[in-house]
Give the backbone structure.
Amino acid sequence: MVITGCAPKTGTEQVNTPALTAAFDGTTPTLAADKISITPTPTKIVTGPTMVIKTLEGTSIPPIVLTQATPEDTATLEPTVDEKYFPNALIQILAPGSMSQLASPFTVQASVFPGADGLVSMQLFGEDGRLIHDQLLKLSTAESGWSNLVEEISFEIPSAGESAMLVVTTTDEFGRRITQAVTQIFLMQIGKSDINAFDFIKQPYIVKSFKDEAVIKGGVVHVAGFAHSYNSNPIIIELLTESGGVMETQIVKLPRGSENLNYVPFSADIPYDVGISTPVRMTIRQRSLLLPNIDNALASWTLTLKP
């Protein structure tokens, strides 16, 4: 048994297990002042023991193949969105920020609303898709449900430097992703780390047409809201059953230049066919440019579909 720590003054239990891969609105906690100088919101964080479960390294993410045709491009951007009251994301990677140059080891700091059983998955992928680092963290939470994640990552790379992606994910009791946050970084064999500040920690996808745990009738899920685009890829909306199967998929092309704005409006109608009341999780995600098998961001909502 190896004892480490994911947060100051806490213990960590480490055992072997398979890797886990992956919203509802919440309040962002205030991070401890001696660890992070950033205080997004006034919610108090209570840290506790963290169990680290190491998993197998050296594997790549299996590809996801979609057969639906990509819609035609939208020529113009919609008017600027008022995002003042949009909530912060359920996973906020506060450090390292995007495009930070990092030597081994480096420290990950994040505000997280953990998934089922308080679990959070943290992975580091090289630019060729190989798995460099993989941990499953069991976090204690405050009464608000939030937790403060502080974890050190050591790595070895075969070249002088390479791009990489840090992925933090939570899942529900059925193994479906609840939310996912990603930061693209640059790893160095030698040298001194140059850590950038975070640039965007709000909820990446906002749905206005219904709330979490909504009951949908009539055979169509109308999804309307706002999306934060990380690149020129479309967003992908899916309805997932409790067994993990994909009931429906819809690809939504965002306007050209969306990645230059914090949010742009979007809408989609997703048809479904059920004979009985069926619980599903609706996810919205966008693939990365560096590693197309990894989503830059993911958010989700639980729905009940009725005939």
Remarks:
- The chain has two domains: 12-77+87-188, 205-305.
- The first strand starts at residue 12 and ends at 16.
- The radius of gyration is 19 Å.
- The chain has no helices and 20 strands.
